[in-house]
Write a structure and sequence with these properties.
Blueprint (H helix, E strand, L loop, with lengths): L8 E5 L4 E4 L2 E5 H7 L12 H10 L6 E7 L5 E5 L12 H11 L7 E6 L7 E2 L3 E6 L6 H13 L4 E2 L3 E4 L37 E7 L4 E6 L5 E4 L4 E3 L10 E9 L2 E11 L3 E2 L2 E2 L4 H15 L3 E2 L3 E3 L7 E7 L3 H10 L3 H15 L6 H15 L23 H12 L4 H7 L22 E8 L2 E9 L5 E9 L3 H4 L1 H13 L2
Parallel strand pairs: 7-9, 8-10, 9-19, 10-20, 13-16, 14-16
Antiparallel strand pairs: 1-5, 2-3, 4-5, 4-24, 6-8, 6-21, 11-12, 11-17, 11-18, 15-16, 22-23, 23-24
Helix pairs in contact: 2-12, 3-6, 3-7, 4-5, 6-10, 7-8
């Protein structure tokens, strides 16, 4: 996940006795009690390397929440503030992923439909064309073009009733409207709040090009009626890679005739960058995209664009399916994709909503019911959007460990494990733990906000034992000073023999 600008020590030596309960097999009894939030354990000191990292950062163990133990019974573990509700940052994505793998299933696929209530006659649809969103994770520009091409292949050329965009799978259908931005950069991809249509994740690519004196920009795709103005942008002598440091939020004006984006701030000389940004109202973008593609395919649309539900009597003319959820999980965890995770969380809510129940409320209920069904306490658990990009979400290290333990002993364990970043190899850990004992032997979900960092997953130690590890750190300087502390914990685990 992109770094945002807002972003008692106890250890256990278990007894050899084990328990079997609610599917959690061969778990040391004391661990299971602690994971349920019901037990304390005698303490021992933190590993010296972790103590040194804390001292170097000017922090105490009170900022830490750690649960780390080998899955083999009768071994030592490390426990630090296991029952303290903490801000998890993107490690919360593991909760959404594990619950969704069970509730939605690894083969669940989002779907997009083109539908009409009026059967095409002589190439004409007398009424509107409905574009219905079904939380399709892969509806990009190419997929939309292919859907409209299939409609043209059926002989349809003229749509008389305009375009109706159906986002009503979620309640409300536009969660992005009226929601306060997470930080001062709402235009960047990590901040996108998805809807059920999710067309290209509401992003457009803007290609900036500067020389010694001027800067220009073009959009991709280049929709008709979209005007881009860079006259307010000044040039500086910073490195091209530092272009974002002098970026300013563009001004956007939209009406029925078109849209204008006025770019501001500074941009480096002799530089090329092509960020994807969420700047335009998504309804305007959908209408512009459908109409231009349809025109290029030789079709014509009359009437205005609108939003609303697809009538029950409508016939689906073309549909598009996203990838199975088991494949989507890799992007959620390897890249720490916020919009993809939020879309998954909303899909869970939509699949379980009762009556007019809000989708986010239903999603939280699904997660809490899953916790209760697994025998995990919900005390202190706070869900918001399921991605960790939140100032409200909270979970205890013991709860997070219990979620991982349930997943490790469940039927979808292979899908989860293969989707976690590998230390020093790929994903958000591709440049971390290089040359350390953890390289290639730790699979961990990262989390980074200004005041919260985390590493959660599984580590194989020097004796080939697999450890379950939850390491969270909450502090005002967490993003700047916290990673070496968490790295020391993971490296200590990987070095155990």
């Amino acid at each position: 996940m992109l770094l945002t600008t807002d972003r008692q020590v106890r250890a256990a030596r278990t007894r050899p006795d084990t328990v079997t309960d609610s599917g959690l097999r061969w778990v040391p009894a004391l661990y299971l009690l602690l994971l349920a939030g019901c037990a304390s354990v005698p303490g021992r000191l933190l590993p010296p390397s972790v103590q040194a990292a804390l001292q170097q950062a000017g922090m105490t163990e009170q900022v830490l929440g750690v649960v780390a133990y080998p899955l083999a019974p009768g071994s030592q573990g490390l426990w630090v503030n296991p029952d303290e509700p903490m801000q998890p940052a993107s490690t919360m994505k593991l909760v959404t992923t594990v619950v969704a793998l069970e509730r939605l299933g690894p083969n669940a696929r989002g779907r997009t439909d083109l539908a009409a209530t009026d059967k095409p006659q002589d190439g004409v649809i007398a009424g509107p064309l409905y574009l219905r969103g079904g939380a399709d994770t892969d509806l990009d520009w190419g997929a939309l073009w292919d859907m409209l091409r299939q409609l043209r292949d059926q002989g349809v050329r003229h749509i008389q009733g305009g375009l109706v965009v159906d986002r009503t799978l979620f309640n409300p259908s536009r969660l992005d409207i009226g929601t306060m931005p997470f930080d001062e950069a709402p235009e960047f991809p990590y901040n996108v709040i998805p809807d059920a249509l999710n067309l290209n994740t509401s992003l457009l690519r803007f290609a900036f090009q500067s020389d010694a004196r001027t800067v220009s920009v073009r959009s991709s795709p280049a929709w008709p009626g979209l005007h881009l103005d860079t006259r307010a942008v000044t040039l500086n002598d910073k490195l091209c890679t530092d272009w974002g440091g002098s970026w300013a939020l563009p001004q956007v004006q939209q009406d029925d005739l078109g849209a204008q984006i006025t770019f501001q701030g500074q941009f480096p000389r002799n530089c090329s960058q092509a960020p994807e940004l969420n700047l335009l109202d998504r309804q305007w973008v959908v209408g512009a995209a459908v109409r231009q593609i349809w025109q290029q395919l030789g079709g014509h649309i009359d009437g205005a664009d609108s939003e609303g539900p697809t009538p029950a009597t409508a016939t689906v003319l073309v549909h598009h399916l996203g990838r199975p959820f088991a494949e989507v999980v890799r992007g959620m965890l390897k890249r720490s994709d916020n919009p993809l995770t939020r879309l998954t969380y909303l899909r869970m809510g939509a699949s379980a909503a009762r009556g007019d129940e809000a989708t986010l409320q239903a999603a939280e209920r699904v997660v809490r019911e899953w916790f209760v069904g697994k025998g995990i306490t919900v005390d202190g658990l706070v869900m918001d959007n399921g991605s960790g990009l939140s100032r409200a979400e909270r979970i205890t290290p013991a709860q997070l460990a219990a979620v991982l333990l349930a997943a490790q002993q469940g039927p979808h364990w292979p899908e989860l494990l293969s989707s976690l970043p590998v230390a020093g190899v790929d994903g958000t850990l591709s440049r971390r733990f290089k040359g350390s004992p953890a390289q290639g032997r730790a699979r961990l979900k990262t989390g980074t906000l200004r005041n919260a960092v985390g590493l959660v997953g599984f580590v194989t130690d020097a004796s080939q034992r697999q450890w379950l590890v939850v390491a969270l750190l909450n502090h005002d300087s967490a993003a700047d000073k916290g990673p070496p502390i968490l790295d020391a914990i993971i490296e200590w685990v990987a070095s155990q023999s």
